[in-house]
Each structure stands twice: as C-alpha cells, then as structure tokens.
C-alpha cells in the first residue's frame, strides 16, 4: 500500500513538495519532543541551551544537625319532484254529434239536436265571453308571471347573496376556529411548560440567592471580629508542639510556643493526631485564601492565618493557610535533629505523603539553605531525586536538596543565565528552594479544581501547588501541608 501511495505522490510535483514538508515537520517535532517544546510543554525544569550554558553542578546539602533531642515517647343529495300528466279515456256512449262531420245522429236526437243548437249559441256566447275573460285573465296572468319572474329573480339574487354571505361567514368562522385552536393549544401546552421552566429557574435562583445571602451574613459575622477570633489559647505551652504533647496537650489546635533561644513566643498550629502527633505546622495550603506570591521579608517573618475557629468551639481547632517564617523554621531545625512530614491531597480526596527523617534550614546569612534526608513515603522523593518524569540533567536540575531560598525579589535559584529576568520564583509563583526550577512547588499559585494548563498560568509555567512525582506538572493540589518535629527514636 505504501508503494502505491508513493507512486501516486510521485505523479504530482506539488504532492512531492507536500511530502517533503511533512517530513521536515515531523523531524522538527521529534526534536522538540526530545528537548521540550518551549512555552506549551514548560515544566518544572528549564532545559539547558548548550551553546551558551554550562551544565550546572549540584550544590552540596549541608550536613544534618546532630545531638540533643528527645527520647522515645510513650439525572345528501336533493330529489326533483316532476309529476307525470294523466290522460283520461273518452266516454263510451250511444249518442252521436249534431254536426255531420262528427258522426251519425241517434234516432231520438232531433229534439236533442235543436236544444243542443240553441244551447250551442248560448254556449258560443258564453265561450266567447269566457274567451275574453280568459284573454283578460291570461293577460293579467302574464303580468303576474312577469311579476313572479321578477320576484323569482330577486329571490334568486337574494339567495345567492345569502349563500355568498354564508360562505364568507363560514370561511371567516373556520379561520377564527383555526386561530382559536392555535391559541388554545398555545395556552394549554406551551405557556404552562414555559411557566414551569421559568418557575424552576426562579426557584433555583432564589435558593442560590438565599445561600449566597447566608454565606454573606456568615462572613459578615466572622469579619465583625476578625482577629479577636475567640480562640482560647491553651495554658499548656512549650518550646514546640512535641514538648506540649508530652505535657498533656493532646488536641490539635493553636498553641503559643517559645523555642529555646528564640526572642519572642509565637502562635503556631500543632497537629497532635497525625502519626502520633507533636507536629509543628510550618506551611499549610487548603483553600487558596492566602496569597503566597510574597517578598523575601514576608517569607522571613511568616504570613497567613495560623488557625481558625471550629464551629461552636471556643478554641481554634482548624489550621489556617500560612507560612511560619524562615527565621522560625531555621531556628527550630537547629535546636536538634528535625524530621519533616509533607502531606498532600488531590481534588478527589486521595492522599499521599513524603516523610524526611532529616530536615535542616540554614539561617538568613546562608540564604536559608535546605537539607533533607532519609526519605520514605508514597508521594515520591521530589526534594532529593527531582521530577520522576524527567531524565539526566533535566531531572537533576529539579532537585531541591541543598538549594537556597528564593523569592521574586531575591533570586538565589539554580537557574544561572545572562538574562536576569529569568527567575524561578517570578515564574513559578511562590517563595521556595528553587533550583532550575522545581519538581515540587508547595507555595505555588492555588488553582481551584486541580487540572490547569500553561495558558492559564501567568508565565506559561507550571506555577500551581505542584508535586510532580505524584500528579505531574499540570495538576494543582487541593491540600498541602508541611510539619516538623524533633527527631527521636520511635518505640
Ligand atoms: Ca536565577
């Protein structure tokens, strides 16, 4: 079949050119497939342009902090009436007429004849008179006939007029009838249907409006005392959540802590249930209520809402969206060996986690350099191994371990180019330990619903709340949280 196709193609020079063009396109396409189509296929990594750039070298992660720590915790037709004329038979008798032309006289008929002749004269006169009368009568009759004829004509005209009128009336009536039927059908069928549809739309809108109104009033109530959220902070405190749980604070809520050597006590959300509790939450995403595209200083000090009120409870039992702050995180991890638990959830409710037995963040002078170790979990080891979808240097340039912290106003990332406008934090939406650029982007932009695409992103890059090793570049997670705890031997 291919031979035949080629033979047909070779018959036409225009087709030849088309074939060549297709070949070229497929060659170019396969090159892009290998080396990532710019814009559309942009992912966590930024492929190297070998003409100008040298292969980046991985920055070594600082050694883990050792020492200190805790010991193990315990759907019809009209008929014509024509009359036939009757004929009477002449009388049979014995007399003959007086007139010889009319036959033989009977023997006793002479007297009868005279009488008849006399009578005949009288009769003739009478007949003449009668004839006159008949003439007169017939004259008057013909006048009558004429009159009758005229009357008949008039009547016929009148009748015709009547029939015409009747026809017109009938025609008009049937027209009216049609209209009436149409109107009735419309009224009986369409209007109730339309009314029903409109009514249901109205009901629907009404319930939506009611819901919105109640949401608005609930929000108004909430906003009336925005920060004096009646959160009773528990009396029990400690240098972090682990110490609090050891002191008997076993509900997950907001506590006040003061780590050793830290200038002031601060509020933090403690998770006292997950994997035996004692976790100090340092990062939390759950509804997109807080903007994570912030500057260096904001990331240094921390931002967001530590905790929110749980319905009908006096204490803040639910975490808010926040970033604890790089200074606090750094200080915490330097008190002793620290472990990091990253939990995430997609929009269907599936959950995975990444646990790092070792987690250290250097101080600001050292650009909050990150070090993670001892991975175990179900999310995939993005921080240490890079994106599992990539290979070679494209993968290694997405490793976060050993990277400095970057924000859009301070570029410390692993993307070193002559073009200073190229910055991971600017393109990927948050403050983070970007390399060139990421396999994990927990502080990225929050996309409602999960799937998003390059044309929705501000810079065409995968700037969502991403963990590539689990959901790839173009899926933004519903929930993501990072919590830390002093590392201690488990029982
Ligand atoms: Ca850079």
Q: What fold name stands as the CATH topology of the largest domain?
A: Gamma Fibrinogen, Chain A, domain 1
Shape: rod-shaped
**Structural class category:** alpha+beta
| Uncertain runs | 24-40, 75-94
Rounded Rg: 57 Å
Average predicted local confidence, pLDDT: 82
Specify the CATH homologous superfamily of the largest domain. Gamma Fibrinogen, chain A, domain 1
Strand content: 5-15%
Overall helicity:
25-40%
The CATH class label of the largest domain is Alpha Beta
Bound molecules: calcium ion
Explain this structure:
This protein is α+β, with helices and mostly antiparallel strands. It has two domains: about 115-225; about 240-485, Gamma Fibrinogen, chain A, domain 1 (Gamma Fibrinogen, Chain A, domain 1, Alpha-Beta Complex), CATH 3.90.215. About 40% of the residues lie in helices and about 15% in strands. It is built from ten helices and 13 strands. The protein has helices at about 1-10, 15-35, 110-225, 240-245, 295-300, 325-335, 380-385, 390-395, 425-430, 470, and strands at about 255, 265-270, 280-285, 305, 305-310, 320, 320-325, 340-345, 350-360, 370-375, 440, 465, 480-485. Strands 1, 2, 3, 4, 7, 8, 9, 10 and 13 form a nine-stranded antiparallel sheet that branches. The chain has a two-stranded antiparallel sheet with strand order 5-6. A hairpin with a 5-residue loop joins strand 8 and strand 9. It starts with a helix and ends in a 5-residue tail after the last strand. Calcium ion binds near residues 411 and 415. Heterohexamer; disulfide linked. Contains 2 sets of 3 non-identical chains (alpha, beta and gamma). The 2 heterotrimers are in head to head conformation with the N-termini in a small central domain.
């Amino acid at each position: 079949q291919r031979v035949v196709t080629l033979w047909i193609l070779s018959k036409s020079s225009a087709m030849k050119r088309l074939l060549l063009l297709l070949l070229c396109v497929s060659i170019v396409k396969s090159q892009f497939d290998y080396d990532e189509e710019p814009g559309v296929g942009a992912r966590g990594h930024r492929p190297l342009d070998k003409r100008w750039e040298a292969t980046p070298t991985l920055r070594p992660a600082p050694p883990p902090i050792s020492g200190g720590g805790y010991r193990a915790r315990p759907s019809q037709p009209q008929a014509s009436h024509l009359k036939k004329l009757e004929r009477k038979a002449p009388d049979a008798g014995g007399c003959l007429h007086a007139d010889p032309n009319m036959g033989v006289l009977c023997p006793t008929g002479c007297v009868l004849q005279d009488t008849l002749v006399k009578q005949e004269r009288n009769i003739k006169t009478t007949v003449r008179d009668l004839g006159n009368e008949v003439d007169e009568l017939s004259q008057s009759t013909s006048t009558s006939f004429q009159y009758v004829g005229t009357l008949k004509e008039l009547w016929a005209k009148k009748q015709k007029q009547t029939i015409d009128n009747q026809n017109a009336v009938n025609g008009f009536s049937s027209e009216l009838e049609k209209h009436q039927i149409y109107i009735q059908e419309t009224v009986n069928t369409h209007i109730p249907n339309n009314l029903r549809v409109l009514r249901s739309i109205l009901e629907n809108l009404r319930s939506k409006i009611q819901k919105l109104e109640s949401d608005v009033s609930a929000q108004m109530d909430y906003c009336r005392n925005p920060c004096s959220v009646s959160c009773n902070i528990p009396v029990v405190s400690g240098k972090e959540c682990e110490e609090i749980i050891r002191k008997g604070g076993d509900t997950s809520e907001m506590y006040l802590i003061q780590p050793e050597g830290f200038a002031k006590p601060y509020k933090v959300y403690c998770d006292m249930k997950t994997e035996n509790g004692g976790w100090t939450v340092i990062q939390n995403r759950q509804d997109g209520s807080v903007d994570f595209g912030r500057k260096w200083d904001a990331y240094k000090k921390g931002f967001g809402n530590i905790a929110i009120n749980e319905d009908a409870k006096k204490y803040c039992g639910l975490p808010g969206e926040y970033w604890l702050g790089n200074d606090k995180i750094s200080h915490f991890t330097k008190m002793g060996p620290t472990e990091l638990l990253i939990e995430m959830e997609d929009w269907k409710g599936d959950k995975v986690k990444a646990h790092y037995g070792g987690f250290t963040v250097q101080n600001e002078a050292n650009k909050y350099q990150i070090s993670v170790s001892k991975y175990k979990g179900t999310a995939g080891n993005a921080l240490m191994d890079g994106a599992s979808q990539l290979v070679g240097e494209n993968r290694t340039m997405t490793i976060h371990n050993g990277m400095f912290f970057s924000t859009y106003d301070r570029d410390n990332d692993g993307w070193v180019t002559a073009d200073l406008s190229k910055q991971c934090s600017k393109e990927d939406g948050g403050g983070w330990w970007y390399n060139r650029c990421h396999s994990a982007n927990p502080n990225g932009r929050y996309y409602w619903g999960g799937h998003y695409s390059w044309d929705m992103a501000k810079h065409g890059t995968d700037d969502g709340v991403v963990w590539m090793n689990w959901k790839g570049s173009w899926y933004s997670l519903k929930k993501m949280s990072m919590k830390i705890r002093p590392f201690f031997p488990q029982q």
